[in-house]
Specification:
The protein is α+β, with helices and mostly antiparallel strands. The chain has helices at 94-106, 111-141; strands at 2-5, 11-13, 31-33, 37-43, 46-54, 68-77, 86-88. Pfam families: MAM33 (PF02330).
Length: 143
């Protein structure tokens, strides 16, 4: 099992800021990195590739508590290339979709794992952001 993700453009606030007329700075929710991530399940020369992303609480289906969903699926032999067919998770049969989520959970890719992935991603993104600010400061000051 191989999981990859990129922290660029992955930060979103937990809640919309509340705006009040007499407050200079709005209250902003906690900044969390919630990157899309790819899960590759490899057996021999065959790879099942699943592109997943976080589900906003407002978009969750009633009765389901999944915090991530499958955006795209593909299966291929050897190396991936641009001719590999990929299907959107939205058009996959709901029973098959649930079976795949259950399979992922059996392999350890559960809500708990994805929450930990978000925590790790948030910490890494925060350190990268600080590095960007330090580099920008040095650049502007001419050092």
């Amino acid at each position: 099992i191989k999981i990859t993700f990129n922290v660029n453009h992955s930060v979103d606030t937990e809640a919309e800021p509340e705006l009040h007329e007499n407050v200079d700075k709005p209250e902003i929710g906690e900044l969390k990195s919630k990157p899309s991530f790819k899960v590759e399940l490899v057996r021999g020369q065959t790879t099942v590739s699943l592109l997943c992303s976080f589900i906003n609480p407002s978009e969750q289906d009633d009765g389901y508590n999944d915090i991530f969903g499958i955006d795209e699926m593909s299966i291929y032999e050897g190396e991936w290339n641009e001719n590999v067919y990929a299907v959107s998770g939205e058009v996959v049969d709901s029973y098959l979709y649930d079976l795949i989520l259950n399979y992922l959970e059996e392999k350890g890719i559960s809500n708990e794992f994805v929450e930990k992935l978000s925590g790790y991603s948030t910490a890494y993104e925060h350190s990268a952001y600080i590095g960007l600010l330090e580099g920008l400061s040095k650049f502007v000051s001419g050092k």
